[in-house]
Amino acid sequence: MAGHSKWANIQHRKGRQDEKRGKIWTRVIREITVAARQGGPDISANPRLRLAIDKAKAANMPADRIKYNVDKASGNLEGLTYEEIRYEGYGIGGAAIMIDTMTDNRVRTVAEIRHAFSKYGGSMGTDGSVAFQFKHCGQLVFAPGASEDKIMEIALDHGAEDVVTDEDGAIEVLTPPAEFEKVKQALEAAGLVPELAEVIMRPENTIELAGEDAERMQKLLDVFEDLDDTQAVYHNASLPA
Fold it and tell me: What are the residue ranges spanned by the domains of the chain?
């Protein structure tokens, strides 16, 4: 499985996210807007907002910009209303794809998603057509060489569901979404800082793609990532790093 290791894929994903750093602020602002509007501005009572603010800080967004967007979403300032919509479909080789969007124009967004599927070799599915192949969970990933015993002890004591050591040595901590923040804080308090920490839709199984199929799949995923309304793209393809 050379070239398809979990750690290499995670690093690849993180690298591509870093390349799109300019778009991250836009996505985080949308997430802050929706989280604050739905759950209020108090981060102690709104875990979704707390997670969005953590993402904003990780993306080096200034504190005053974060506060401005929380205030704006809480009704202290006027702003747009975003709608959350998930689209599902199939990529190259039947790989499952889900695209989470936040949009102020549903007609525009669905047209862009449908066009991308059609133009780059995929096919758009109906609601629920691939969602069953993913699990909603918190994921914290540690680099090969991290202390498996220490991570496992702390994570399981604070509500994690599972700790998985992949063949390449990377360690994944999986949590229920509601326990993600508690587990993350406990690990970081013990000096165990994950390379990647987010609440995701994690594929239950993966489909390996190589060569031209992998290139076509990556192109399709890149197109979805580059759409203005995209918040996150999930898929079950294992691609060479």
Answer: 6-73
Q: b/e string for 13-51 if b means 16 or more Cβ within 10 A?
A: beeeeeeeeeebbebbbbbbbbbbbeeebebeebbbbbb
Per-residue pLDDT of the chain (241 residues), as tens digits, is: 233 456 666 666 666 655 555 678 888 888 888 888 888 888 888 988 988 898 888 888 888 888 888 887 776 545 567 788 999 999 999 999 999 998 889 999 999 999 999 999 999 999 999 999 999 999 999 999 999 999 999 999 999 999 999 888 899 999 999 999 999 999 999 999 998 898 999 999 999 999 999 999 999 999 999 888 898 899 999 988 6
Residue 226, token pair as written in the block: 């580059």
Which DSSP state fits 39?
Answer: H
Q: What is the largest CA-CA distance in the chain?
A: 53
pTM of the model: 0.76
Q: What is the CA radius of gyration of the chain?
A: 18
Hey, what CATH class is 6-73 in?
Answer: mainly alpha
